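Summary of Year 1 activities. Much of the first year was spent building the evaluation harness for sequence design. The harness presents a backbone, in tokenized form, and records the residue chosen at every position. We chose the following record to illustrate the format because it has been used consistently in internal testing since the harness was completed.
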């Protein structure tokens, strides 16, 4: 396959009557999905002359403010905006001065001047010839704020997503019979570029829900016989605290995967106890790497709990110093990634692209260490580093030690100004419910495991 169009065509031909997606109790087969996509696309062409290379913005519920929305819609030069009712007030303010936006299509939105999305899914325009596109053409532009400056639109190609399907199968072992519970946001690459297209490639099903309350999640796993659950550590922490978890039938579940933040060791241990037969995967990816970049397999979930795992096949990584010199195993520097998952660049940002992607190597901006066995350990971003009397302290290293304490639920380490040392480390700690914990205990725990300047 060369494009996502071919991916959908193949799915509708080979898996036509299988359920592709379930949302709010409504299900859609692959054949129905293909028909809706074709109808929607042909109507976009007929009504608005949307063609190859045009940008159509999808604005579903999120937390962007009007100024941010205005910048993104203007920057990407969207001709058509598809907006959900819950985003309408923000979208309306954002597009007020944008002459390039020709039309707004409303989802659960009934207001003057907005075309209901149902109108584009009821009648088809003229049949569309298959667009003349290839693997290097841009399929989606996802905006990422990074740590500084204005948001940048990462241009993800058809080839990027198709490679990511391979990486997902290799790293997470997706199967045709899977039912994936999708509670991660679909404006992030895990949901959009990993779960959805890989499910389509294999002919499996996705259950899409915006509910992240632990009991809602457990209920959906039970009702839909979900086999995989991807989420952030916070959701996993809350799941382990459900007291009547044993009342739910979760026997269908075979894989729990987490990413996006450090996972407390005791939460991994608790997941092992609660889900003894379920694989636990840590994984890492960026918008600029399309999604799956490293995976920590279940057998290393506890022994290498602080690692994001090893690279998936066909990707390369190296750790470099500020001058770009590759560092040996065990040394901390910037993590660079190279391979078929690296995006084409940033839309309308040639300088930012040239700075981020050099000779095919993506400069992630993440500090990391790679050991002799290829396991990668994140050490935070360079801008987060705390410098105590000239010594570097990586917050995540301190946080990992803090969360090993049985009485600690969550922790964050930050730098505070100091008149002599420049900075000192400050820890913000959340106790486990009902736990007793003193500052002296925490300091003793850390002193036994960290150099004195890190405590």
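For this record, the design step produced the sequence shown next.
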């Amino acid at each position: 396959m060369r494009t996502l169009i071919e991916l959908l065509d193949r799915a509708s031909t080979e898996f036509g009557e299988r359920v592709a997606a379930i949302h709010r109790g409504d299900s859609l087969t692959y054949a129905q999905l293909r028909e809706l996509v074709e109808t929607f696309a042909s109507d976009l062409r007929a009504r608005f002359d949307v063609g190859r290379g045009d940008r159509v913005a999808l604005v579903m519920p999120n937390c962007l403010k009007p100024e941010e929305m205005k910048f993104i819609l203007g920057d990407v030069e969207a001709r058509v905006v598809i907006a959900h009712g819950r985003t309408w007030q923000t979208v309306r303010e954002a597009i007020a001065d944008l002459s390039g936006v020709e039309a707004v299509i409303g989802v659960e939105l009934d207001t003057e001047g907005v075309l209901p999305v149902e109108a584009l899914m009821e009648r088809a325009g003229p049949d569309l010839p298959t667009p003349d596109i290839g693997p290097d053409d841009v399929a989606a532009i996802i905006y990422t704020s990074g740590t500084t400056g204005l948001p940048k639109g990462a241009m993800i190609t058809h080839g990027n997503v198709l490679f990511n399907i391979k990486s997902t199968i290799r790293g997470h072992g997706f199967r045709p019979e899977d039912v994936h519970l999708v509670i991660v946001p679909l404006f992030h690459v895990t949901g959009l570029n990993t779960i959805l297209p890989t499910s389509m490639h294999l002919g499996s099903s996705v259950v899409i829900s915006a509910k992240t309350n632990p009991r809602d999640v457990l209920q959906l796993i039970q009702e839909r016989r979900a086999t995989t659950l991807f989420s952030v550590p916070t959701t996993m922490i809350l799941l382990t605290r459900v007291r009547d978890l044993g009342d739910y039938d979760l026997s269908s579940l075979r894989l729990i995967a987490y990413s996006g933040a450090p996972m407390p060791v005791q939460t991994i241990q608790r997941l092992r106890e609660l889900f003894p037969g379920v694989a636990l995967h840590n994984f890492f990816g960026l918008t600029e790497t399309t999604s799956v970049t490293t995976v920590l397999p279940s057998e290393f979930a506890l022994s290498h709990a602080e690692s994001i795992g090893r690279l998936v096949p066909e990707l390369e990584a190296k750790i470099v110093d500020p001058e770009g010199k590759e560092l040996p195993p065990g040394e901390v520097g910037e993590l660079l990634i190279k391979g078929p998952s690296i995006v084409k660049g940033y839309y309308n940002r040639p300088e930012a692209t040239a700075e981020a992607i050099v000779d095919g190597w993506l400069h992630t901006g993440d500090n990391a260490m790679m050991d002799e066995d290829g396991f990668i350990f994140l050490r935070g971003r360079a801008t987060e580093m705390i410098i105590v009397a000239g010594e570097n302290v990586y917050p995540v290293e301190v946080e990992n030690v803090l969360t090993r304490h049985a009485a600690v639920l969550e922790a964050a380490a930050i730098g505070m100004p100091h008149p002599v040392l420049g900075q000192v480390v400050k820890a913000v700690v959340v106790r486990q419910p009902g736990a007793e914990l003193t500052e002296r205990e925490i300091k003793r725990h850390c002193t036994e495991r960290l150099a004195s300047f890190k405590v």
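The radius of gyration is 23 Å. Quantitative recovery figures across the full test set are reported in Table 2.
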